[in-house]
Amino acid sequence: MKRFYKGSIGLALAAAALPGCREKAHDKPNILFIMSDDHAFQAISAYGHHLNSTPNIDRIAADGMRFNKAFCTNSISAPCRAVVLTGKFSHMNGLLDNSDRFNGAQSTLPKLLRPAGYQSAIIGKWHLKSDPVGFDFWRILIDQGPYYNPDLKDSTGTHRYEGYTTTVIGDQAIGWLDNRDKNKPFLLMVHNKAPHRNWMPEPKYFGLFSKTKFPVPENFFDDYSNRGRAAKEQEMSVIKDMTINYDLKVFPREGDSITGDDKAWEGGMKRMTPAQRTEWDQYYKTITDDFYSKKLSGEALALWKYQRYMEDYLACIQSVDDQVGRLLDYLKKNGLDKNTLVVYCSDQGFYLGEHGWFDKRFMYEESFRTPLVMSFPGMIKAGTVSEALVQNIDFAPTFMQLAGLPVPDSIQGISLLSGENRKAIYYHYYEYPGVHAVKRHYGIRTDRYKLIHFYQDIDEWELYDLEKDPHEMNNLYNDPSYTVVIAELKSNLVKLQKQYQDNEALSKN
Ligand code: SGN
Ligand code: CA
Q: What domains are there in the chain, each with its CATH number?
């Protein structure tokens, strides 16, 4: 199965690689890479889940390709960002979890593309602790950044920008495009904060979904039977761990004892201007009054939480989609649309109530898989769909090949333009003990099966037959009829660990 349409991209690249076709640096394709934070593929209408409508992200899919099997390698933010920048797994780029600091001295996309004459910029969420290195321009959120009136840091210092953060990031991206050196091709990385927790929408989208009744995932009340301890002991349950005040914006009443994550309930609101705060209070006061009047408990409370979660999460995505539209319109208006590869993706996937969860981290499908759509007129046939197993290690080599550069052996991804296909992909997650208590694990996924090893404080293996059990409800590891399948998967797991040099994991098999 080809990654891009029918080898046409291969031909286009071959032609472009001929001497004479590349004399002018600015003939090289531009790259607009838009990555959101925690955007589930279930929440993009091009993926056909009917939860919401994302017309602008859908435009990229309609003009180009939708990837149905795009995955990350380690499902949390900072590691995903380091993987995108380096084209290497976490154990090779040194950033294993969100507490690590990125070593900016290593080879990264902006440095790798420079020999081909690219200028590069990153705007928005960065999350790697050290300042960006190698970019011609950077203007980044501090850590996670807030939803309103963000501080953005650049090489001159940190400044406050008034407005809704998703819009501010869009403004900054357009501003950079306008002021860039127009004689050079560009790599522009636009990294949204949204729709990361705690899902604070833009005022114009307050109430957008208040009348929508969202279908509850069939495994929302999952009891984790037929699964191991990792699924049972996580702390990312909508019912148990999602908070009423902080996550779901119900104002606490006087005298309420506020505990756990709810202590942060007012944090993001403190940054608001008085006018923003008035609008916010007005909208969420109605929700607050409604909530207390209902006196919900048990299943009714669980279902109310799910609906409330979806309303705010999806409203945040509406603003992201608007900004994608603005950027696409800018490219078109300025004659850049024909020569720009546009990528939209998320750092990782997210649970929208599947297994009863929010958050990510697990190698189970909803958090392992990411949305990915790409357009590049003339090279990618409009409206195509890829079922190839691709990963975020593949961006760096893809962009290098697009720029006409050789891909160094040290890069572990495969260019999406190469036409090469993997039979299996590898995953390794490290952040434990940590927030949401997802245990350390690594594993292998093929088109049909997934084998996971949870380790550190436990030693448990899980096997899923994705054809028969797409929602991963039934661990088959101890089913004797899968002995041969398991042996083959283990052998291929070892091969991948050797190929990717994950020696630590090799010693844990
Ligand atoms: C914060 C969130 C967590 C989330 C991590 C990592 N809590 O700690 O829910 O898992 O970020 O997210 S919050 O109370 O601060 O919202 S990541 O996408 O950056 O990896
Ligand atoms: Ca994230």
A: 29-199+313-422 (3.40.720.10), 229-309 (no CATH), 435-506 (3.30.1120.10)
